[in-house]
What does this fold into?
Amino acid sequence: MGSLDLYLARHGETEWSKSGRHTGRTDLPLLPEGEARAAQLRPRLQGIRFHRVYTSPLVRARRTAELAGFPDATPDDLLLEYDYGEYEGLTSAQIHESRPGWELYRDGCPGGETPSQVYERARRFIAEAERDQGAVLAFAHGHILRAIGAAFLEQPVVFAARLWLDTAALSFVQDGAKGRIVGFWNLAPGQ
It folds into this structure.
């Protein structure tokens, strides 16, 4: 199998990401500042020749891809955000009121996805990107991208909790001659 250069771009800020509310399948638009930060991805990505560009089908990821210069990114349901079930729209602080010590990648969400389901979806996306080979770019959401990072590095899904990801941040992982490595992680606009 050839090498894979996998670029991961989180969508720009929405009203819920700004307030810390878990936004899974609720399809929110970017805020104006989210659009501005998403557009800052363009100069970072324009010199790279991508074999394939994917996006979550949700509007916040698709719009980020468009503003970054990829209006024809291929929608892929594997890149949908974590299904938070009953925790959709809640903050972690609100969840901790009824469930102290809760951690998404360990405990999952009632009525939503389990950590193992999200991890499997992340692994399936990586396998899809490996078939493309070369440079692949994916626009998606914080928690699924962190799960992809953990899966790519062949770490357990709970490792994803240690991979912080800001809005409109870019990350790069690579599978090449030295194995799977992190080129950079959470490179936010202006850094």
